[in-house]
Amino acid sequence: MAFFTASILLILIGLYAVLVKRNIMKIVIGLSLMDTGVNLLIVSLGFIRGRTAPIINVKDLLFNTSSKVVDPLPQALVLTAIVIGVAVTAVALSIVMLMYSKKGTLEIDEYKELKW
Amino acid sequence: MILEYFMIFLLVLMLILAVYVVETKDLLAAVIASGFISLVASIVYLYLQAPDVAMTEAAIGAGLTTLIFIIAIRKTERYEK
Amino acid sequence: MRKLIAIAFLLILGFFMLKIVSVFPFGEERWGVSRHYVDKGIEENRASNLVTSIVVNYRGFDTLGEVTVLFLAATALAFLLATCKCRKKYERIEASLTLKTASDILYPLLILFGAYIFIHGHLTPGGGFQGGTVIASAVMLMLLSHFTFHPNHRALSTIEGLAGIIFVLIGFAGFIWGGSFLANNILPLGHWNRLFSAGVIPLIYIAIGFKVGAELSGLITDMYKVTKEEE
Questions:
Q1: Which of A79, B25, C93, C171 is most exposed by smallest CB count within 10 Å?
Q2: Is the ipTM reported for this complex over the cut 0.85?
Q3: In chain B, positions 30-69, which contact chain C (CB-CB < 8 Å)?
């Protein structure tokens, strides 16, 4: 239960940075915090107490496997999500660099062209 | 039992670091602290019996993400107004 | 005022998220479809690492889409940074002798370690994604310590394209001879817990390792080069 609460709090802290902070770089950092929180939540949903990792490298684990290992499916989902996360962060940061080269500031209030 | 208390300590450490990341004015310090959050998260993944995810998080979250953030900060500015 | 509204909104959101999650008790058994993957995984795929068996075979189509997203992100980043007029004055600081020598020694070892991780992806923890990341971090180390180091961009994109084509071709080979896309019965499965086993899984994971390594190295080089031009 502590794992669920902590990862939900991590998501909320990241979302707070996205909602309240005026600095674009801070918003991107908040998005990457939310990423960590979601990944932690999904992995802790698949955990089963007293089991071992889903790697069958001893003979003992070959039989009746589903009563001896944790659920591997959430781990497989999170594995790909982390790699996607770094690529998406890189694209976001390149957009930030482009915006800075146009106006010379990171404050989001200065970018008024999209307001109407 | 000691392991569980240690995990709770790590989770609390992650939350404190996250609050620091959001509140500090120095963006470089914020990026280093968020890399540290990823490193702590990879230890937590080891407790949750997910060695694959722990390896990925340690290599990507603490290595590559921190580097690309630092490159972007070097291109822009370091302190938040 | 805006802060208070945001905090109230976040509290409501957090309450409902906690409510939803607390339906599932922590650390107890709840098997869905993955019970089949766990119980029949060794029999059907012979890969000791069940996560690899899911990522590459049972959900291989998902992984193909994910690799495509990675490719699109790298392309978008190169396109965006090509139009960037990011110029700022910096003085060059030469890296110290210790850093240079150590990274010269570590560079081939790190690439070897990455290759070890993705070749043994079906036996031990790790696989294509982790191995590719380790290779990218070797490139990152060289970029940080040597000004003159410049990875060959054309070679990187060739490796990337070839690895992607190999992944799709293995999938189509399964379609033609095995009955379904990415079917794992076109090669002999071999014995459990051996290096040459698990059919096409190691081949696909090696292709993914090359693709992720080349893609992330190119991405870092693109981002770093923009900062490097302004001297």
A1: C93
A2: yes
A3: 51-52, 54-56, 59-60, 63-64, 67-68
